[in-house]
Design goal:
With 166 residues, this protein is mainly β. It is built from no helices and nine strands.
């Protein structure tokens, strides 16, 4: 949402992952959530800069059998907050279409060591205040906490196509 040179943005992302081996001896179920809230400021007619926070939440549950057939299971969750700064540009291609580009970086050792994303999109204006967006998003997160048996490391790049409404 924008008014004048200022704006706010909410980005809510949830991913669920499930895997079972072919012999049904084990399974892994996980979730990854990232909720961002940012304040934007227009620095040029087509360019906004922004700052905010991203709440990250991860969980994994593993189930299976050990070598002698005993059922084993375990789960782990972790949540943390990353500060972030970024830039967003929206360039009209025609009356109905636009190219968008968003990139940010965060963490800075306060949550993740580094958290970054790049997200180009093509937008189709459906009306005065709405548009359909298609893009490709890449999110990298390098988060580490704890030591020894309680050590938690999440160093991953998630990527794929996106669809959304703005």
């Amino acid at each position: 949402a924008n008014r004048g040179g200022w704006g706010v943005s909410l980005d809510l992302t949830d991913v669920n992952l499930d895997a079972t081996d072919d012999r049904e001896r084990g399974s892994a179920n996980g979730h990854q959530s990232a909720y961002s809230a940012t304040a934007l400021y227009r620095v040029a007619p087509l360019i906004d800069v922004y700052a905010g926070v991203r709440l990250n939440s991860l969980g994994v549950r593993l189930e299976g059998f050990d070598a002698i057939g005993n059922r084993v299971e375990g789960s782990r969750t972790r949540s943390w907050v990353d500060p972030l700064v970024g830039v967003r540009a929206v360039v009209p291609i025609s009356d109905k279409f636009e190219f968008g580009f968003l990139a940010d970086i965060g963490g800075f050792g306060m949550g993740s060591d580094i958290a970054a994303q790049v997200w180009p999109t093509i937008g189709w204006r459906m009306g005065r205040n709405s548009k359909l967006l298609a893009g490709y998003r890449v999110i990298h997160t390098d988060y580490r906490a704890g030591e020894g048996a309680s050590r938690f490391v999440y160093d991953i790049t998630t990527f794929g196509p996106t669809l959304g409404v703005n």
